[in-house]
Amino acid sequence: MPDREGFVSRHKIGYIYIKYNKNVLKYMTDNAVSSQLNREDVDNLCALPPGTVVDLQITTPTAPKRVKTAYVGMELATCMIFQIPTAAKWMVVRDLLTVGNDVVVRFVLEGDAGQVIAFRVKVLKLLAKPSGLLITSFPRRIESIGLRANKRAQPGIAVKVSCEAFPESEHVTGIIVDISNDGCRIALPLKPEWPIMIDETKIALVYSTDGKEATLNATVKNNQLESDFVYYGLKFDSDDDAVNALLAGHTLIS
Length: 254
Description:
Blueprint: H1 7-18, H2 22-30, H3 39-46, E1 53-58, E2 65-75, E3 79-83, H4 91-96, E4 102-109, E5 115-127, E6 133-137, E7 142-146, E8 157-162, E9 173-179, E10 183-189, E11 202-209, E12 212-226, E13 229-236, H5 240-249
Antiparallel strand pairs: 1-2, 1-4, 2-3, 3-6, 4-5, 5-6, 5-7, 8-9, 8-11, 9-10, 10-13, 11-12, 12-13
């Protein structure tokens, strides 16, 4: 988890960055500050409060490295700012944040619609003083996946979940909120009749594509309870062709 020291002192900075009015948003939309961002995208970014824990996926020559840190603030259409502690355990992460390197940012935006938001940015500058801060470019494209049925935008990938832990009479459904070649993260509604799946549980994910059902086998690697959902980290057991077929129809800035 990120070091929360200094969040209070930086809250005012973050507030200044995200404070806006209708004229600012209208200017951004009408003048195409970011060619692919619409009004809803801008609203989602401005709804992210300073101090929110976000997931950073940092590009490396081998496998991407993912860490959790805190959002500090932004300057509309110019840059985003995140906390990168100067503690020794963060030195490896800091060494990867070279100017021009790609970073994918993901976070859950709570509220009535409930969404996972993701966007790709580039490293502009890494500061060590007066505080460890990462400054990135402003996103030019944003992807979102709705977690609730009444979300009007893209609903994500709906899946049926089958495993020995669930009664056969139950129709267990969830949503894939994040996916890669090796595995995915799914969100299942928190229900008393649905037990929490433990690590190493074998499951099957059934989803529809082009009107046909397809199945992916996976193993539960972790779970996390948040609000009204249980999030499961899964490792795919299916062959590459089955995974690639799913990836072809859906990405969250992978």
